[in-house]
């Protein structure tokens, strides 16, 4: 049976920790490997991308493999061919599917009908590869997660869901400030709380950042939600991470963002360019985390 990475829960507790440790080791040694020698990964992207596309392409190559990039414009994706047929055909050609799409159900169908690993490069439900890079970025600075408080300020989107899922396996405190009506996946939240995850929800960003070591922001309107931009700007008034909000956090607080950032909306230019901003290290860590994930996928 192929090994999929669709969500952090696919790794299990020990696997999630091992990915973080292995990614750090890969980064420190400028690792080049052979686990994908002779293998081809199909990058299936229905959403635009800079970091995800380039970091996965480079990761595959640094592990010995090659890539094919596919979008709906250059293939039968999104046309009349059922996804299950695409999964069956691509299973005869390539060794792995790295998929960036909208509905989580598309990944599920590709995994069900294909006979090769499927990696979640982003869906509307979650962004687990980004989250593993985020954890690596924190781990480099604070190896003891039990001493970490992360404040999420913004929408209850796919990144928020992935943070909730990560809290099930890593003992950080997660404070989430989310505007009314934009809450994260409630079923996932209930599952996380039942598992012992330390999560605090509020509608007040100032409460969320109190004592936080890391403040995380994301765009208020994700891809596919552009028509809601004005409505969301109104809903998230007061949620912009600025110097005043940063000053309410713990001394030495750091700022994280999965990028691209809408400067002047969810974060000010001043914070993005400040010494507290570690977004560029975070962006680099996509490469190292994804190399560790791919090595896990192709390990016995």
Task: Explain the overall architecture.
With 300 residues, the chain is α/β, with parallel strands linked by helices. Helix content is 39%, strand content 15%. The chain is built from 12 helices and 9 strands. The chain has helices at 12-29, 51-62, 83-90, 104-113, 128-139, 158-166, 186-194, 205-209, 229-235, 243-247, 269-272, 279-297, and strands at residues 40-45, 66-70, 96-100, 118-122, 149-154, 173-178, 198-202, 214-217, 254-257. The strands form 2 sheets. The protein has a 5-stranded parallel sheet. A 4-stranded parallel sheet has the order 2-1-3-4, with helices on both faces. Helix 1 (12-29) packs across helix 5 (128-139), helix 1 crosses helix 12 (279-297) and helix 5 (128-139) crosses helix 12. The longest helix is centred in the last third of the chain and has 19 residues, at 279-297. The chain is globular and about 55 Å long. The termini are close together.
